[in-house]
Amino acid sequence: MRVKIPGWEIVVICSALLFPFTSLCAQEADQPFIHRLGIEARPQYVFPTNPFLQGENERWKPIQSSFAAHLKYSFKYRPNTCADRIYGGAYQGFGLAFTTFGDKKQLGDPMTFYVFQGARIARFHPRLSLNYEWNFGISARWQPYDNDYNSYNGAVGSRVNAYLNAGIYLNWSLSRYFDFIIGGDFTHFSNGNTKFPNAGVNTTGAKIGLVYNFNREEADLTKSLVHPYVPRFPRHISYDLVLFGSWRRKGVYVGEKQIASPGSYPVAGFNFAPMYNLNYKLRFGISLDGVYDGSANVYTEDVLVEYDAGSGSSRRKFLVPGIQHQLALGLSGRAEYVMPFFTIGVGLGTNVLGRGDLRGLYQVFALKINVIRNSFLHIGYNLQNFQTPNYLMLGLGFRFNNKYPKVRH
């Protein structure tokens, strides 16, 4: 049985990822950006994190390597400008990648669309720097687990998966037009617990590429003797309110075996975080986090089964507890790294009110995408005890008492 690809979900997420470039770039069209087009090759090692990748598959061979080809468009602030000095030569854009694991039948050859951002870590010479870059997007064309046709695949449970990547590399400006890059990165594919199984695929390896700069000048490759004036940052406390929702599948252990729930469960919640804005690139604070998790504390009983007319067999019935077992309220410490268009946030907290599954520590990783000055799109992920996937956090945020200055480019 083939799983239908949820096309509306792809459209929504891709639209959210493209928004900064279709709206904000249009607003900044009169600003001096350098536009770039790049190609990259990424040979990767696949971590053997589950039996399927270790060799318990149809071919009885481990899946140890992958290869990805990337095409990327980006724009960056010109060197020796105020924005360049504050954000360390930040650039941002979107890319398209083709990945193969050498096993199209069991894993597929996914295509990935993503947004990315990078900046300078250190400059050794006007033409040579050490940079970082992150990618975030959505990948399709996977071959997921199927009980009849792909039963060995315990790594991937969805045809559409999230894509996360981070790496560092050397950037060498060969000429006015061309940059050569070489470095390494780490990649993670998973579906955010929206399907089951969700072991995911993790890779690491090299990245080698060439970037063409359409409108870079020779003067951009020399060190300026004049440093642009950077206005003093007004330290202040702002307040972020995020409303989010998503869905998730649930696995319940019966003995040593984990059984997947027959359907998905809704998730909804909020974060309210007073944040101290320390400087242009750093803010931190404490967040009040509330969540309703429709999958929390679901359970099965051996004596309770129901007959499945479609398969002609009995299957275990999942029981849902009362709503008081599905609500939680927690406190978390938050830190955010602020860059043009995007903000990356991390959080560590614990639920002060919650039962069963909702007890213990939780971790939050979030990407905030600027919409207008005081609102943003929020794409986050919640983990429990540093290892157990919880749920996606897809939502909209609002910022109050925002005194962040407008940077002159």
UniProtKB/TrEMBL annotation:
Q: Where is the signal peptide?
A: 1-26
Q: Which UniProt keywords apply?
A: Signal
Q: Which InterPro entries match?
A: Lipid-A_deacylase-rel
Domain of life from the UniProt record? Bacteria
Q: What is this protein called?
A: Lipid A 3-O-deacylase (PagL)
Organism of provenance: Bacteroides finegoldii
